[in-house]
Amino acid sequence: MDATRIRGPLALAGWLIAIVLIALPARAGDVVQRTAAGAPVPIGILGDSDSHSYQDELLSTTRFGRFRPVTFQWPEALARLRPTQLDLGAWGERGTRRSVAELMDWVGLGGRFPRKQDYLHNLAFAGATCGSLMGYDGRLARRMAATMDRDPGKWRLGGVVIIALGVNDFGHANSLDLLVENPAAPQVQAKIAGCLEQIRQAVALIRTSYPATRFVLVGILGDVDDPSNLTHWRSANAIRNINIGFDAFDNGLKAMAAADPRIAFAPLRPWFAQHWGSRDEQGQPNYKSVTIGDFVVSHSAGDDPKNCATADEHSGVAWNALWAQSLVALMNARFDLGIAPISDAEVAEFLRPAIEASRRTDSGG
Which three-class secondary structure string do you get for 269-307? Predict the structure, then answer.
């Protein structure tokens, strides 16, 4: 037999084995939980840096400074507050470079991108856009389905996938400035329409294999309420036009939920306003503080937990704990999941280490 005919297949086999070996560390720490009566509800997450777990040491070991050990994202809050009722998957290090993930997909190994530390079912990553749901930069929907395939029994009974995307597409200052001039600005509305279509396609793709899957679609907040932006967009016309522009996205999500009892819409702007306020009718900042026990969390940015936002202006630990509380209430109301509601007292207890760390700083400790 021609030796070159042997070397070719052997080389290909070696190449595929190498890809498998690359994939193996990504699965380290996975724990398969078989579905049974009373089993926790599986929760999947497709999102950006607003959902990517903060304790990912591959992303950073210095982010949040001295408060890093007590600063958690909302998925981390959910996992800690309801560990026996919500299943976000095992914590572990997974993922590869994008090109390797694509090759793994091609040979049926279920690639993940990027490499990070997170829960198995949390596919969110910093910088993700709506295009990451179906496109080359993430293929989040397809990879969520592949993740479900690891233990299909529990997902076929009806898990929940939370999709929280859009801010990197049309929620930043460049888009807000266009909306101020015209809430129907075609550059922005095209991005909004594209986001809605990507979300529709993602829901359809996942339901092809797991038709009982329920979805929570999170609305847009955008940069207008960031503490660093208080000097921007300070007119009634500006805020009105931004909200009208954003309504196109939220109304699209709301319509999906209205047409499907297995989809819930989670509006973020009114939720934030309920807690920390918003702009007044003239577009002027009209924010307030949230009191948790005897701890006050102000509308400000900084790594100290007394700020609603972190120094890099992502949601702070108090914000995330309260959002986790709201998500449980929403999922119970919409899907009748029977998850124990997260009480205000539990939120305060969850935040106790962060509160104590803040007070030690105030006292010079």
Answer: HHHHHHHHEEECCCCCEEECCEEECCEEEEEEECCCCCE
- Contact status, residue 287 vs residue 299, Cβ threshold 8 Å: yes
Phi–psi pair at 46, nearest 5 degrees = -120, 110
Q: Are 173 and 140 in contact, with CB atoms under 8 Å apart?
A: no
Cis peptide bond N-terminal to 183, omega within 30? no
The C-alpha atoms of residue 340 and residue 334 are separated, in whole angstroms, by: 14
Helix (H) or strand (E) holding 162: strand 160-164
CA R_g for the chain? 22
* Rounded Cα gap, residues 203 and 206, in angstroms: 5
Cβ atoms of 111 and 103 closer than 8 Å:
yes
Residue tagged 């295009």 (tokens): 131
| DSSP symbol at 169 | H
Q: Give the torsion sign (CA, 196, 197, 202, 203).
A: positive
- pTM for this entry: 0.89
Helices 140-148 and 98-106 cross at an angle (nearest 10°) of: 50
296, 289 contact by CB (below 8 A): yes
CA distance 240 to 281: 9
Q: What is the mean pLDDT of each run of 10 residues along the chain (365 residues)?
A: 39 40 38 53 98 96 97 98 98 87 78 90 97 90 94 94 98 97 98 98 97 98 94 95 98 98 98 96 94 96 98 97 98 97 98 97 81
Q: Is 9 exposed, middle or buried (0-12, 13-18, 19+ CB in 10 A)?
A: exposed
Cα 271 from Cα 114, distance rounded (Å):
31
Residues 79 and 119 sit within 8 Å (Cβ to Cβ): yes
Distances (CA, A) of 278 to 250, 268, 334: 17, 12, 27
